[in-house]
Specification:
The structure holds 2 protein chains of 2 kinds. Chain A has 6 helices and 3 strands. By secondary structure, chain A is mainly α. The chains are: A mainly alpha, B mainly alpha.
Chain lengths: 149, 221
């Protein structure tokens, strides 16, 4: 079955031809010059830059809401227990020990002052080392025994 | 926030000396695509020539699409070239400039109609605006021809009737009829401008012409 619409109907052709016969009105005087001027002016206008992370969010209220959500997501990180737990989870499941070793080595090399030793910091934080790996690395499994201060 | 400024390097038009106006080889006008490429590169003269080429045809199309609103058509014409220049980098040189720029114009007409609807202004599709009020300025003044006053008046009445019939179509129907018959685009070009399959264009055109002929054949009240 052919569902193609029949556009050869004389009635339809007449209707189409009547549209084709419509006059082409004269454009207003100076239209081309005004268009040119507008294009030139727009190219010289400064482009307002928006921080890339906020670009998809255009409404001011939505931007405030997005900022609030980011703060809400990061606020628990101020609690050392939560942050520490998260760090351990990331080390175990995402980055791995090797990467962690590199990062710690880098941080140690950046810190120029001798500062407090790791055992002191461990005792301060209430971290008890329960195991050590074969290389004697201090990046062994740790258990937090701090019960709160 | 830091602000960056981009500027279009628009060189001054070169002075043409009278001596150089001596007879030369027949100059072939560069295609639209080439002019657009030069315009994107900052050649103001090429941009001016390109706008001049489309001034009459595109303005006429926009005027018919907006139901004869000259101010809207004027703004939309400027917006079309502004958008074209901004999107110039995305223009595929293998394609033709005319369907591309017409597609921009059609999308701008749609956006404008949507905004007017949101603002509560009467649109062409609005049934409430089908009375005499909506016919204010909906029929463009025909271009001056060498006709006598009687013929001119008759022609104007005829145009008024056709424009009213066009205004009675939906936006989608009006687009397809105007692009194919008024702007002399092929069905394939019309399909590419409206970004719909060829079959859809045919069925839309059939529906539009059926409705248009119905309105045109209806005796005037």
């Amino acid at each position: 079955m052919n569902d193609e619409p029949n556009l050869n109907d004389p009635k339809l052709i007449r209707a189409g031809e009547s549209v084709a016969r419509l006059s082409r009105p004269q454009p207003p005087a100076g239209l081309a010059a005004r268009t040119l001027a507008r294009i030139s002016a727009s190219y010289q206008k400064p482009i307002k830059k928006v921080f890339w992370m906020l670009r998809p969010i255009t409404h001011p209220v939505a931007r405030v809401a997005a900022a609030a959500m980011i703060i809400y997501a990061l606020a628990p990180m101020t609690d050392l227990d939560v942050a520490s737990q998260l760090g351990v989870q990331i080390e175990r499941h995402v980055t791995g020990h090797v990467f962690e070793n590199h990062v710690e080595a880098l941080v140690d090399s950046v810190i120029s002052s001798p500062g407090d030793s790791q055992p002191y910091l461990d005792s301060f934080m209430g971290v008890q080392r329960t195991n050590s790996n074969a290389n004697g690395s201090r990046h062994a499994n740790v258990r937090h025994t701090r019960t709160g201060t | 926030m830091p602000a960056a400024t981009t500027s279009l390097n628009l060189p001054a038009a070169p002075a043409v000396s009278a001596q150089r106006a001596a007879p030369q080889k027949e100059v072939v006008a560069p295609p639209d695509e080439k002019l657009f490429e030069l315009a994107i590169g900052g050649d103001r003269e090429s941009l001016g020539e390109l706008i001049g080429r489309y001034e009459k045809s595109l303005f006429g199309l926009l005027l018919r699409m907006t139901g004869g609103d000259s101010h809207r058509a004027d703004d939309l014409f400027q917006d079309t070239f502004l958008h074209a220049m901004r999107a110039g980098k995305t223009f595929d040189k293998k394609l033709h400039f005319k369907p591309w720029v017409t597609a921009i114009a059609v999308n701008l007409v749609r956006d404008d109609a949507r905004k007017r609807k949101v603002r509560g202004e009467v649109g062409l599709d609005s049934k409430t605006g089908s009375g005499a009020e909506s016919e204010r300025s909906t029929v463009p003044e025909p271009a001056a021809t060498g006709e006598n006053p009687g013929e001119s008046a008759e022609r104007r009445d005829e145009e008024l009737k056709i424009q009213r019939a066009l205004n009675g179509l939906t936006e989608l129907e009006r687009e397809v009829v105007l692009l194919h018959f008024y702007d002399s685009m092929t069905l394939v070009e019309t399909a590419s401008v409206l970004q719909v399959p060829l079959g859809t264009i045919k069925s839309r055109l059939h529906a539009a012409l059926t409705r248009l002929s119905g309105i045109l054949e209806k005796p005037a009240p």
